[in-house]
Write a structure and sequence with these properties.
heterodimer; A: Rossmann fold; two-stranded antiparallel ribbon; 6 helices; 15 strands; 26% helix; B: alpha/beta; Rossmann fold; 5-stranded parallel beta sheet; 9 helices
C-alpha cells in the first residue's frame, strides 16, 4: 500500500500579515515558510501507520504544487520521514488549479490513500482535498480526526457539526484530516535532515487547469478600540457593562 | 437563474445557520433580481420546511431518500449538483463548517464553478462578481473575483443578520438519481453531542487556558457556561495536555469561531489563538498578566486570578438575571 500526503507551503503561523503593491499581494519579506500545520499532522499520522504496518505500507510520498521556492518545505517533509517527494511545477493560484494539477498527475500515478489537511493557514480555502477527490472520482472522508488501518479494514472517525461518526471505507480514498489525527507533529532529527538531502524529489510540469478565481486585493481588519479594564474587586461592574453597554448578555 | 442554498438540519430541525444562509441568499437574490431555492436533504417535516419561507426562500426542494440519512460526501455532492442544474442556479451557498467544507469543493468540480470559501459579506460587485473572504485565519480579508458563470460561496458563521420576512414558499419533493458507487463510504456509528451547546452554534463561548492550572479546575467554567447557555472551548495547550478534548480547541489549527460574546479565561492570547476568535463580536479577558496579548484583542478585561474571579462572575450574572 502507498500513501500520499499533499502538502502546502505556507507562512509560519506567527507571521505578521502585511500586504504590498497597493494591497494587491501578500508581502513575503522576511517570512519563514513551513509545512501547513494540518498537512504536517497528516504526514505524522502516515508515518505512524507505516511504522505499525509491518511492511504492508510500502512508502509515504509527499506532493506539492508550487514553484521551486517551496522545495525547502518539501525537504523538511522528507527530513521528518517521507520516503520521496514530487513537486508539480505550477503556480498554486487557487484551490481549483492546485487540485486540478494534483489530479492530472495522480491519474497516471495512483496511490491507495491520499491525505490532505482540512485547511491551509494562508488562504483558508478548505477545498483542495474535496476537489481532488471529485476530480479523481474517489470516495472521501472529511474532517477526519482518527484513521486506523488493519489489513484491508479501514476505520475512520470524523467530526461532524453536532457530534462524531465512525466510518469504514475502501481504498483508494481521500481523507481530509484535521486536529486530532496525530497528537503532535514530528520534528526532523539531525539524521533525518542528512538523509533528506539524498531522498528523491521529482519535479514534473503542471498538466492541470488554471484558476477559476482571482484574489484581487486585501484588507486588514480595522484597529480595535482599547480594552476597557475593570477592577478585579468589582466583577459586578463587568457584568453591568456586558448587559447594559455591550448588550451581549 | 436562481440562488440555491444547501441547508442543514439536525434531528429533523433546521440548524440556526440554515436561516442565516437563507437570509444571506435572499440579499444576493434581491440585488441580482432572482429567487432563492433552498435544498433540504434528510427527514424534515412539512411545517419545518415551511419555516425557510420566513427567511426569504421562494422554493424548497426536499430530498428525503432513506439512503441520504447520513452525510456521504460523494452522494450528497451529486444531489446538490443535480438540484443546481434543475434550478439553473448560478450562485450556490453553503455554510463554512465541516459539512460545507466536505461538499462545496466536490460541487465546485462537478459544475466547474469557482468558489470563495469563508465569505463574510454579500458580494461588493456582481460584475465582476467580487466578494470578501477571510484569509490568514481572520488576520486579513481578501477580495476574490469568481470568473466562472456559476459561483459557489461558503458563508463564515455569524456574518450576516438573520432577517425574517413575510413570504410564501412552495415545497417540492425532489428525487435525485442516486448511484450505488457513490456510497462506498459507510457510516457505522454516530455519536451525537447531547446536552451541550455546539461550539459552532453558540452565541456565547466560555473558553479556558493554561491559567486554569489543571483539568480538575473546569467545573466553574462549566457552571458559567450553563448559566449563560454557552459553548465550552479551550486554548491549544489545554487540548494538547489532554485536559479537554480536541473538539473544544479554538484557534488557528482548531476551530475558528465568531460568537457574540467570548470569554478568554486564563488565556494569554498567542497570535494563533487570536486568529481563531478575533471575529467574536465582544471579547472578555481575565488574566493575571496585565501585559498578556489577549488584552489587545479584548473589549473588556480584568487583571486577576481566574480561579478567584470565576465564582464572583457566576454570582454577579445570577444577580443580574434575577433583577
Amino acid at each position: 500500500m502507498k500513501i500520499l500526503v499533499c502538502i502546502s507551503n505556507v507562512p509560519d503561523t506567527t507571521t505578521k500579515i502585511r500586504f504590498t503593491d497597493n494591497n494587491s499581494a501578500f508581502d513575503t519579506t522576511g517570512v519563514q515558510w513551513i509545512i501547513n500545520p494540518w498537512d504536517e499532522l497528516a504526514l505524522t499520522r502516515a508515518l505512524e501507520l507505516k511504522e505499525a504496518s509491518g511492511g504492508s505500507i510500502a512508502s509515504i510520498t509527499v506532493i506539492n504544487v508550487g514553484p521551486q521556492t517551496s522545495e525547502p518545505t518539501i525537504r523538511k517533509a522528507l527530513a521528518i520521514g517521507a520516503d520521496d517527494a514530487v513537486r508539480i511545477d505550477a503556480e498554486a493560484s487557487d484551490a481549483y488549479a492546485v487540485a486540478s494539477n494534483l489530479a492530472a498527475y495522480l491519474k497516471d500515478n495512483p496511490f491507495d490513500i491520499i491525505l490532505c489537511g482540512i485547511d491551509s493557514s494562508d488562504y483558508n480555502g478548505s477545498l483542495v482535498g474535496g476537489m481532488l477527490s471529485e476530480f479523481l472520482e474517489l470516495p472521501s472522508v472529511s474532517s477526519v480526526s482518527t484513521l486506523d488501518i488493519d489489513g484491508s479494514d479501514i476505520k475512520v472517525n470524523r467530526e461532524i457539526d453536532g457530534g462524531s461518526e465512525v466510518l469504514s471505507t475502501t481504498v483508494p480514498f481521500v481523507a481530509v484530516v484535521q486536529k486530532g489525527i496525530a497528537l503532535e507533529p514530528r520534528i526532523p532529527s539531525m539524521r533525518g535532515i542528512m538523509m533528506a538531502r539524498k531522498k528523491p524529489l521529482t519535479v514534473v510540469p503542471g498538466a492541470g487547469e488554471g484558476a477559476l478565481t482571482t484574489f484581487v486585493s486585501y484588507d486588514l481588519p480595522p484597529a480595535k478600540a482599547a480594552c476597557k479594564m475593570v477592577d478585579a474587586e468589582n466583577v459586578k461592574e463587568l457584568v453591568d457593562l456586558l448587559h447594559n453597554e455591550a448588550k451581549v448578555i | 437563474m436562481s440562488v440555491l442554498v444547501y441547508t442543514e438540519n439536525w434531528e429533523g430541525k433546521f440548524k440556526k445557520l440554515s436561516f442565516e444562509l437563507v437570509s444571506y441568499a435572499k440579499q444576493i437574490a434581491e440585488q441580482s433580481g432572482t429567487s432563492v431555492t433552498a435544498l433540504s436533504i434528510g427527514n424534515v417535516d412539512e411545517a419545518e420546511l415551511q419555516k425557510l419561507g420566513n427567511y426569504g426562500a421562494d422554493k424548497v426542494l426536499n430530498a428525503s431518500d432513506d439512503r441520504l440519512k447520513v452525510l456521504i460526501n460523494k452522494a450528497y455532492a451529486s444531489v446538490i449538483a443535480q438540484a443546481a442544474d434543475k434550478e439553473g442556479a448560478n450562485v450556490i451557498i453553503f455554510a463554512n463548517n465541516f459539512t460545507g467544507k466536505a461538499l462545496s469543493p466536490r460541487v465546485s468540480v462537478k459544475l466547474k464553478a469557482g468558489i470563495a470559501s469563508g465569505v463574510n459579506a454579500v458580494p461588493s460587485s456582481f460584475d465582476p462578481f467580487t466578494v470578501s473572504k477571510k484569509v490568514f485565519t481572520g488576520k486579513a480579508f481578501a477580495n476574490v473575483v469568481i470568473n466562472t458563470e456559476k459561483k459557489i460561496l461558503t458563508l463564515f458563521q455569524n456574518s450576516v443578520d438573520i432577517k425574517e420576512t413575510a413570504g410564501s414558499v412552495s415545497v417540492e419533493g425532489f428525487s435525485p438519481a442516486l448511484d450505488d458507487a457513490d456510497f462506498a463510504t459507510k457510516v457505522l456509528d454516530v455519536n451525537k453531542v447531547t446536552g451541550k451547546v455546539l461550539l459552532s452554534d453558540a452565541e456565547v463561548v466560555v473558553s479556558g487556558g493554561r491559567g486554569l492550572k489543571n483539568a480538575e479546575n473546569w467545573a466553574p467554567l462549566e457552571e458559567l457556561a450553563t448559566e449563560l447557555g454557552a459553548g465550552l472551548a479551550c486554548s491549544r495547550p489545554v487540548s494538547d495536555e489532554g485536559w479537554r478534548p480536541h473538539e473544544e480547541h479554538v484557534g488557528q489549527t482548531g476551530k475558528v469561531i465568531a460568537p457574540n460574546l467570548y470569554f478568554a479565561l486564563g488565556i494569554s492570547g498567542a497570535i494563533q489563538h487570536l486568529g481563531g476568535v478575533s471575529s467574536s463580536k465582544c471579547i472578555v479577558a481575565v488574566n493575571t498578566d496585565k501585559d498578556a496579548p489577549i488584552f489587545e484583542a479584548a473589549d473588556y478585561g480584568i487583571v486577576g486570578d481566574v480561579q478567584k474571579i470565576l465564582p464572583e462572575l457566576i454570582v454577579a450574572i445570577r444577580e443580574m438575571k434575577a433583577s
